[in-house]
TrEMBL record:
InterPro entries to which the protein is assigned, alphabetical: GntR_C, TF_FadR/GntR_C, Tscrpt_reg_HTH_GntR, WH-like_DNA-bd_sf, WH_DNA-bd_sf
Span of the signal peptide: none
Pfam family, one: GntR
SMART domains: FCD (SM00895), HTH_GNTR (SM00345)
Keywords on record: DNA-binding, Transcription, Transcription regulation
Protein name per its UniProtKB record: GntR family transcriptional regulator
Keyword match Signal: no
Superkingdom of the source species: Bacteria
Species for this entry: Mesorhizobium calcicola
Domain HTH gntR-type as annotated: residue spans: 16-83
């Protein structure tokens, strides 16, 4: 590789890293429900807020589009995905197919260290539930999703873990749009029951509890759309 190639490679890598960092911040805002479904994400505004070129902003938005968190429309731009009721049903139908199996797999692999990590996660959820205000609420929502991602990690299947990352993110969008309750419907007590089943090695119980848990989350949905803050406010600029 000559000097010119090395400079180009370094520049391209730096651009990719910057786009990834912007993607991560936008994704967190979407998953945490600080950016509501349907929010417009213009390349110009994203570029201005993060002090990057439109090319870098476009790359970040394309990453989110590949994950299903952003949709792009010709001649209109990019928007936070706005799942339809049918898409919402499909998200939870997918979770019913996948997560009971993840619970069974995790039950066969869980260690004492994993149980300790789950207990820390549950304590964090409980702390946010006890607090008040929008920041605590968003943190609780994120902690609830992190529980499911931790379970997928313990199950030891990297492919399923990637699926779960997308499903948890899409679920957050669905809950933001259709959730009846003001807080995450992902019940803390149900998480506690699942961890108890894992600790006792009862895979059948863990699977049943997970299925009931997913049913409970979906039962909290209706068709009312919730408005959210603009891009600038959601990202605290």
């Amino acid at each position: 590789m000559n000097i010119a190639d090395q400079i180009y490679s370094a520049t391209d890598s730096a651009t990719q890293d910057r786009a990834q960092a912007i993607r991560d911040q936008l994704r967190d805002a979407i998953v945490d429900r600080r950016l509501a479904p349907g929010t417009k994400l213009s390349e110009g505004e994203v570029g201005t807020l993060f002090d990057v070129s439109r090319t870098v902003a476009r790359a970040a938005l394309q990453m989110l589009s590949f994950e299903g968190l952003v949709r792009t429309e010709r001649n209109r731009g990019a928007f936070v995905a706005n799942p339809s009721p049918e898409e919402a049903r499909q998200v939870f139908a997918s979770r019913r197919l996948i997560e009971p199996g993840i619970a069974v797999a995790a039950c066969g692999r869980v260690s004492a260290a994993d149980i300790a990590a789950f207990r820390v996660q549950l304590d964090e959820e409980g702390r946010f539930i006890a607090e008040r205000g929008p920041n605590a609420r968003r943190s609780e929502i994120k902690a609830s999703g992190d529980f499911h991602l931790l379970l997928a990690s313990v199950a030891g299947n990297a492919i399923l873990q990637r699926f779960m990352e997308e499903l948890v993110a899409r679920s957050s969008l669905v809950i933001a749009l259709y959730g009846r309750s003001g807080v995450s419907a992902c019940g803390h007590s149900e998480h506690t029951g699942i961890v108890g089943a894992l600790e006792s090695g009862d895979s059948s119980l863990a699977s049943r509890l997970m299925l009931h848990h997913i049913d409970h989350i979906e039962a909290d949905l209706d068709l009312r759309v919730r408005a959210g803050p603009a891009l600038r406010e959601a990202l605290n600029f």
